[in-house]
């Protein structure tokens, strides 16, 4: 992304080998993006862990049970409340989850509970109880590049006033900081490479990657799938861009 040089997939994977965290973005409903995620994860050698935006922290025991072969897919989906908490076709993610099981790679539930982020989006941080506040990771709400990126994404929602935009931004930061904290904890306590699967807004540099790096999760690399007309705008936010 930095130089604009075109390289082969294998050359990209070679450069990813030195990263402790590899972020591979997605548009949630695009099979092509999930195919790229799977291809990258399969190509990486050594010990792996796979981290998912789609699963929320309280459901980590269900992922552990699936990884250990103690439960199968139907129970995994039931115990993680997939339909109500994520809702996208699990068929798009099945191969990624199965890959973890096949390789003995831990599957990590990265994300914050939906109840928490929804409450912040509706009512703001001040509405949280002491217990809810205590559960929050350290939040950097002032990072200017992240805020500009968020505001640009929200430009298509003219009905949002400034207060609503601030609340939604705070919820977005909670998502990113929680996933960053989960990723950094794994990196601190384990060897190998963590591959993070999350939406393109979360895998851009100022979102999860920089926030996890602030907690020590380095070196890292970002792979983003983009359309041709997104290429230039995406270059500052990634290390490698795969153009459709």
Could you describe the 3D structure shown?
By secondary structure, this protein is α/β, with parallel strands linked by helices. Helix content is 49%, strand content 16%. The protein is built from 13 helices and six strands. It has a six-stranded parallel β-sheet, with helices on both faces. Helix 13 links the parallel strand 5 and strand 6. Helix 10 crosses helix 12. The radius of gyration is 17 Å and the shape is globular. The two termini are 15 Å apart. The mean pLDDT is 96.
List the helices and strands and how they pair.
Elements: H1 9-16, E1 21-26, H2 31-43, E2 48-56, H3 60-67, H4 73-79, H5 82-85, H6 94-103, E3 107-111, H7 114-123, H8 130-134, H9 144-154, H10 162-189, E4 193-199, H11 200-203, H12 208-214, E5 220-226, H13 231-234, E6 240-243
Parallel strand pairs: 1-4, 1-5, 2-3, 2-4, 5-6
Helix pairs in contact: 3-4, 7-10, 10-12
């Amino acid at each position: 992304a930095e130089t604009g040089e075109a390289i082969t997939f294998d050359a990209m994977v070679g450069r990813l080998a030195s990263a402790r965290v590899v972020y591979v973005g997605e548009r949630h409903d695009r099979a092509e993006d999930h195919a790229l995620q799977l291809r990258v994860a399969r190509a990486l050698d050594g010990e792996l862990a796979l981290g998912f935006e789609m699963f929320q922290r309280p459901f980590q025991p269900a992922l552990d049970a699936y990884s250990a072969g103690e439960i199968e897919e139907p129970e995994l989906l039931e115990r993680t409340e997939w339909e109500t908490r994520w809702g996208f076709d699990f068929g798009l993610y099945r191969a990624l989850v199965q890959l973890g099981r096949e390789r003995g790679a831990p599957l990590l539930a990265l994300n914050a509970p939906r109840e928490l982020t929804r409450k912040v989006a509706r009512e703001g941080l001040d509405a949280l109880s002491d217990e809810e506040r205590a559960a929050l990771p350290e939040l950097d709400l002032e990072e200017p590049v992240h805020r500009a990126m968020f505001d640009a994404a929200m430009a298509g929602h003219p009905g949002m006033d400034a207060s609503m935009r601030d609340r939604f931004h705070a919820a977005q930061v909670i998502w990113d900081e929680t996933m960053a904290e989960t990723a950094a904890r794994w990196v601190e306590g384990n060897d190998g490479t963590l591959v993070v699967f999350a939406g393109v807004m979360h895998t851009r540099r100022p979102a999860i990657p920089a926030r996890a790096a602030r907690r020590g999760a380095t070196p890292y690399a970002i792979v983003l799938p983009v359309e041709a007309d997104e290429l230039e705008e995406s270059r500052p936010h990634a290390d490698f861009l795969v153009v459709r």
